[in-house]
Design the sequence.
């Protein structure tokens, strides 16, 4: 039998994996510049963390979680998202005791049992930040700006869409009227939306079925129902974004598929990706920490879908050549080449050498295939003459260098390679 990866789960191979690493590293540097610190969460949580945090009526909890019983009979779930786990960790480890706000970032694999499609897998990867402890609109604006800067830094241009989904003071009245509207039009809705209308009414607004979207154009809008507190909060978020020169569109049909959101929600959308066009999304969740057993703690954050981001980037072109490949001709040179490669790597420069007993020409071809910029050639002539031949594979030039000369030249190369 020839084994394959499970359905909806993929291997990420070079050179694509190198670009993944580059994207993650750019995100980490940016998040740290904003004062966020890394939290590393378990991949498994007790199922109740997600059932309580995300919501029993959500599609994620009802249909998409990978859950199983452990040997003690307790239900565990592979994490479908990270925010509920962050809130659990915040409460468990009393992270707010040392002062607020607490600013955290994470990245890693998530798991949802759904139909695999473009940019959407059963094992997928997210990066995100969470700012816990501040109720102020400036916190919302900061995470939105941070998300925008990350995407711009990758060379992506995405439309920012904003909305307010209200809170416990004003949302119930809207849900009552929306539910009444949907009951009158129930025959025109898809099967999922007929169920959502009863169990998770707000989620109907996020349906991608064109029949439902036509019906929802006549549904009551959420904006008219917002209380003064939610209206004022949203207005201040908009003002801060405008002051920062950020373009955005308000879309009062925008909701998120998780029950914990309150007030601000947002998405960065790339229309070229089709129906599943959200590169990143997030919002405010002021009651989740309390739902996890903690003190009332307002919070806001976002997550970025790495597969979607990578899909939106231009194809890999191989990148710039870098590093040194040590070409050895003869047994004596091969022994010497091993220690030379060790010295080059100690300088932080990408380096490799032949382990397949190839001919000199084949070694040069391998260096070219692997994207190396230079070949450091060691043969009988070089060993006898006490020098090294350094060939530039881009310029097509070659020069002789002594021990100090090649160390100085190679030591001046970029300290990091392209991830190889």
Sequence:
């Amino acid at each position: 039998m020839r084994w394959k990866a499970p359905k909806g789960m993929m291997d990420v191979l070079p050179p694509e994996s190198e670009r993944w690493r580059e994207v993650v590293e750019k995100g980490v540097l940016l998040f740290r510049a904003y004062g966020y610190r890394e939290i590393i969460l378990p991949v498994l949580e007790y199922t109740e963390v997600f059932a309580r945090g995300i919501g029993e009526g959500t599609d994620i909890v009802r249909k998409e979680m990978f859950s199983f019983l452990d040997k003690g009979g307790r239900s565990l779930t592979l994490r479908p998202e990270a925010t509920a786990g962050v809130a659990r960790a915040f409460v468990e480890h009393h992270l707010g005791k040392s002062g607020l706000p607490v600013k955290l970032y994470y990245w890693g694999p998530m798991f949802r049992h759904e139909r695999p499609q473009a940019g959407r897998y059963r094992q997928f990867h997210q990066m995100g930040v969470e700012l816990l402890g501040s109720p102020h609109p400036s916190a919302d604006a900061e995470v939105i700006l941070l998300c925008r800067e990350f995407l711009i830094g990758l060379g992506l241009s995405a439309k920012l869409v904003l909305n307010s989904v209200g809170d416990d003071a004003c949302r119930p009245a809207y849900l009552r009227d929306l539910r009444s509207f949907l009951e009158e039009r129930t025959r025109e809705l898809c099967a999922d939306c007929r169920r959502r209308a009863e169990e998770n009414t707000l989620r109907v607004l996020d349906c991608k079925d064109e029949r439902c979207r036509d019906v929802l154009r006549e549904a009551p809008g959420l904006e008219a129902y917002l209380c003064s507190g939610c209206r004022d909060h949203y207005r201040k978020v908009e003002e801060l974004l405008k002051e920062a020169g950020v373009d955005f569109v308000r879309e009062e049909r925008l909701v998120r598929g998780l029950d914990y959101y309150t007030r601000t929600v947002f998405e960065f959308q790339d229309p070229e990706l089709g129906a599943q066009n959200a590169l990143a999304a997030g919002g405010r969740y002021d009651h989740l920490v309390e739902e996890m057993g903690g003190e009332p703690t307002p919070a806001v954050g976002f997550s970025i879908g790495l597969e979607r981001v990578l899909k939106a980037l231009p194809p890999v072109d191989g990148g710039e050549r870098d590093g040194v490949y040590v070409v050895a001709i003869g047994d004596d040179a091969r022994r010497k080449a091993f220690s030379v490669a060790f010295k080059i790597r100690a300088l932080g420069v990408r380096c490799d050498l032949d382990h397949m007993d190839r001919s000199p020409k084949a070694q040069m071809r391998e260096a070219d295939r692997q994207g190396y910029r230079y070949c450091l050639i060691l043969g009988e002539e070089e060993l006898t003459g006490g020098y090294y031949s350094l060939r530039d594979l881009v310029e097509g030039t070659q020069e002789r260098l002594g021990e100090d000369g090649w160390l100085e030249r190679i030591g001046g190369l970029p300290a990091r390679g392209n991830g190889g």
